């Protein structure tokens, strides 16, 4: 996705009409109800304020990192009132995380750096949270082995978030095209990475390498989907047939609820529960033994959908999109 710097960021569209709340959402197919009811309205107001005073999305994301990391630090303490402050801090961090994307769509201030920074923000939050839980658990009598569970749960979280984000962008690519999606691929990213020099562009090359690894991880977990995307892009270079768009949306939309389950809201609701009952160690096992099976089901289901459409398109029976 190209970096499109704003000229005069303001919460108005080309027709000088106020930007609507709905226009700052990615898609009703991919939005979670808790986000629509709670985080998106708060984020919209923050985004409107930021646009009015000229604040760009990336600084909003950076501020969210401080609040999210701060929340993790506050979860180290066993005093519930301190934990509650941490909960409120994490909720505000996620509101800012919602606001940065809404602000980017509101002002057309989109960039790959912003997307990378947005994804990294959540990683910083949960690294802080995992470290705090490990240290807290050791104070409660756990041995150093708790760090093994913390690392395994962290790795699970990375894969869950990466695949959920990827599948949502694939869905947006099919229903909105490249303009409505942030779908990237390792081929293009590697070409851009190779153009950078470690001597002259160390920071940019490091970020590019990190994002290339992230995208490579997503692609390795979705081989049939990669076949489908390659076929679609070679067969329909300009525009997808509307019948394909409608059929893909119908069959893929039910999978979007699983991408939401393994993301922020579900894990945080249960994290808060474990904090209230002072059993934070359960969070690691919830991540591994509850959310990972959902991740596996999500991947298997998406691969099944991808295999179905690949078979139909490759056999040129484009009008036969009926059942998987």
Blueprint of the fold:
Blueprint lengths: L32 H21 L3 H18 L5 H28 L4 H28 L6 H31 L9 H10 L6 H19 L2 H13 L6 H11 L3 H6 L2 H13 L5 H33 L10
Helix pairs in contact: 1-3, 2-3, 2-4, 3-11, 4-5, 5-7, 5-12, 6-7, 8-12, 11-12
Can you summarize this structure?
The protein is 71% helix and 0% strand. By secondary structure, it is mostly helical. It folds into two domains: 1-142, CDP-alcohol phosphotransferase transmembrane (TM) domain (Four Helix Bundle (Hemerythrin (Met), subunit A), Up-down Bundle), CATH 1.20.120.1760; 144-181 and 224-324, no CATH class.
Mean pLDDT: 90
Number of DSSP strand runs: 0
Task: Outline the biggest β-sheet.
Answer: none
Total count of helical runs of at least 4 residues: 12
The third-level CATH topology of the largest domain is Four Helix Bundle (Hemerythrin (Met), subunit A)
> Roughly what percent helix?
over 70%
Order of helices and strands: HHHHHHHHHHHH
Highest CATH level, the class of the largest domain: Mainly Alpha
CATH architecture of the largest domain: Up-down Bundle
Name the CATH homologous superfamily of the largest domain. Answer: CDP-alcohol phosphotransferase transmembrane (TM) domain
**What's the domain count?**
2
Provide the gyration radius in Å.
21 Å
Termini Cα gap: 31 Å
Give the overall form.
globular
> What structural category arises from helix and sheet content?
mainly alpha
What is the beta-strand fraction?
under 5%
> Uncertain spans, ≥5 residues at pLDDT below 50?
1-15
